Amino acid sequence: MLNAVLSIAMLSAFLLLYGAWKRWSRDGASQQMWLMIAAALVIFANVAIWVVPDEKGQSLVTGSVDQH
Questions:
Q1: pLDDT tens column, 32-42
Q2: How far apart are CA 1 and CA 7, in angstroms?
Q3: Which pTM was predicted?
Q4: CB of 24 closer than 8 Å to CB of 33
Q5: Inter-residue contact 40 to 20 (CB < 8 Å)
Q6: How far apart are CA 65 and CA 45, in angstroms?
């Protein structure tokens, strides 16, 4: 289930970046475009926190799988 949530998060972040690019190409730089980019970066950071392993080679994803 966690893999599905992380996949949906990544897809939504890429869609936010695509939407920001479309808004920039249509209207130029706007506040909404920058907010979409910021939201995508926050999602990427959250996924990285869950997936990137620490110095022991474990991540939050592998830790949650080991507990079940």
A1: 999 999 999 99
A2: 10
A3: 0.82
A4: yes
A5: yes
A6: 21
